[in-house]
Design brief:
Length: about 170
């Protein structure tokens, strides 16, 4: 139904709560999405911690841990990202709120990847955007989009792409 087609009644039913209880905490879908978005942003800190823990002399197992952190985050919050992107088409306030948060996340990831690699071929914000966008698309098609990608193949693809991005510039 998408963000626009989903009613508060639909959300209350899916959450297993009464409509009055949902309205007690959230007067509208906008406020509900902002709160869920905050939770998602806070949860992203675990991904940032995993990127920051990546040593400069990384091993394959280090990249598997990082890929696992990315994918676990997406399993828990990927639907929020998809809904947020859909909802912001017609809501400038949500778009501005989400963009500022996402740009900070992209920049942090890009800076850490540049630290590990020892250089950056593109600005950190764009580097983070490329990596997170790649992971988000892979996750989406493997988990939601019906692509025949197993969990092991998804993990291998993300780990491989991280390794490729992290090879030091010569």
């Amino acid at each position: 139904m998408g963000f626009g087609g989903t009613r508060m009644d639909d959300i209350a039913k899916a959450a297993g709560v009464s409509r009055p209880l949902l309205y007690h905490y959230f007067p509208n879908k906008h406020d509900l999405l902002v709160e869920v978005g905050r939770d998602s942003t806070v949860a992203f800190r675990s991904v940032l911690d995993a990127v920051r823990a990546l040593p400069e002399r990384w091993q394959h197992s280090d990249l598997e841990r990082l890929a696992s952190a990315f994918l676990a985050y997406m399993d828990d919050h990927g639907s929020v990202l998809s809904t947020w992107n859909h909802a912001t088409w017609n809501d400038e306030q949500l778009r501005d709120l989400g963009v500022s948060s996402q740009l900070r996340s992209f920049t942090s990831v890009g800076e850490e990847l540049a630290r590990v690699r020892g250089s950056t071929p593109i600005p950190p914000m764009q580097e983070g955007m490329v990596v997170l966008g790649m992971i988000e698309r892979l996750w989406y098609y493997a988990r939601v989009g019906g692509a025949p990608i197993s969990d092991d193949a998804l993990m291998a693809a993300v780990t491989h792409e991280l390794a490729d991005r992290l090879r030091r510039q010569r």
